[in-house]
Amino acid sequence: MVQVETKLRVADNSGAKVIKVIRVLGGFHKATGSLGEIIVAAVQEAIPHADIKKGQVVKAVIIRTSKEVRRKDGSYIRFDDNAAVLIDKNNLPIGTRVFGPVAREIRDAGYTKIASLAKEVW
């Protein structure tokens, strides 16, 4: 669960390393976002000579959260960090690789390209 001002690790090779949430999309005054939701964020750290620059405003999908999420079978899934993958206007990932595990809820939310790029889907 992330909210405004939350810093997230970027789990792809787009060039950004850390982003800060500006807005959680999906409703009027939506306060928090969870797995598979789109956020608007500002790039806080980026690698040199990349297409994504520090201060740039981007859209991203949340793929990991430290706050546990309950699944329909009653189990809970929780990760060690908060992470996101940058997306373009067509909701496709900007990077060509996704690092670390990705929650199964990402595939259920319709981001099959992100799930297929991930090494493991939990």
UniProtKB/TrEMBL annotation:
GO molecular function: large ribosomal subunit rRNA binding; structural constituent of ribosome
Gene3D superfamilies: Ribosomal protein L14
One GO-annotated biological process of the protein: translation
Keyword match Ribosomal protein: yes
GO cellular component, one term: cytosolic large ribosomal subunit
Database matches in SUPFAM superfamilies: Ribosomal protein L14 (SSF50193)
Keyword entries, A-Z: Ribonucleoprotein, Ribosomal protein, RNA-binding, rRNA-binding
Transcription regulation listed as a keyword: no
Functional summary from the UniProt entry: Binds to 23S rRNA. Forms part of two intersubunit bridges in the 70S ribosome.
Subunit structure: Part of the 50S ribosomal subunit. Forms a cluster with proteins L3 and L19. In the 70S ribosome, L14 and L19 interact and together make contacts with the 16S rRNA in bridges B5 and B8.
Family stated for the protein in its record: Belongs to the universal ribosomal protein uL14 family.
Name by which UniProt lists this protein: Large ribosomal subunit protein uL14
Origin species: Geotoga petraea
Gene transcribed to yield this protein: rplN
